[in-house]
Specification:
With 127 residues, this protein is mainly α. It has a domain of 47 residues. It contains 6 helices and no strands.
Length: 127
């Protein structure tokens, strides 16, 4: 990166800072109270937090939360959550336990082999 691209944010800040101070001062408020309607609109827009929070909450957050709440209630109300937690999950656990019981022999070499393969799998996955 060149020196100019690294110092550009600082230069823009130094140029914009006097403008921000002027727009937020009482002198600017007195200046904007003239008969120019366009200038009044700009002044009030910048002095009232630009309305970004209000616009964002009204058009993005509230519709998203409303649709999410309505759709998630439909999902839970249809019983998918109960079906998964009460029927499917115990069936999966029971099947996994049955598979482990069929493979397990109870001999020490089998336990050492399972432990070794678990350690090797852990090292491969995390290292």
């Amino acid at each position: 990166m060149s020196f100019l691209s690294k110092i550009m944010p600082l230069l823009l800040l130094c140029l914009a800072l006097p403008l921000v101070i002027f727009l937020s001062s009482r002198t600017a408020a007195h200046y904007w109270n003239c008969n120019h309607n366009f200038l009044k609109v700009i002044f009030y827009f910048f002095s009232n937090k630009w309305y970004f929070d209000t616009i964002y909450n009204t058009f993005i957050v509230r519709p998203f939360l409303h649709s999410f709440a309505k759709n998630s209630f439909r999902f839970v109300d249809k019983g998918y959550l109960e079906m998964f937690s009460l029927n499917l999950l115990p069936t999966i656990v029971w099947g996994a336990a049955t598979a482990v019981l069929r493979v397990q022999t109870g001999y020490l070499p089998f336990h050492v082999a399972c432990l070794g393969s678990s350690v090797v799998g852990f090292l491969i996955y995390f290292c």
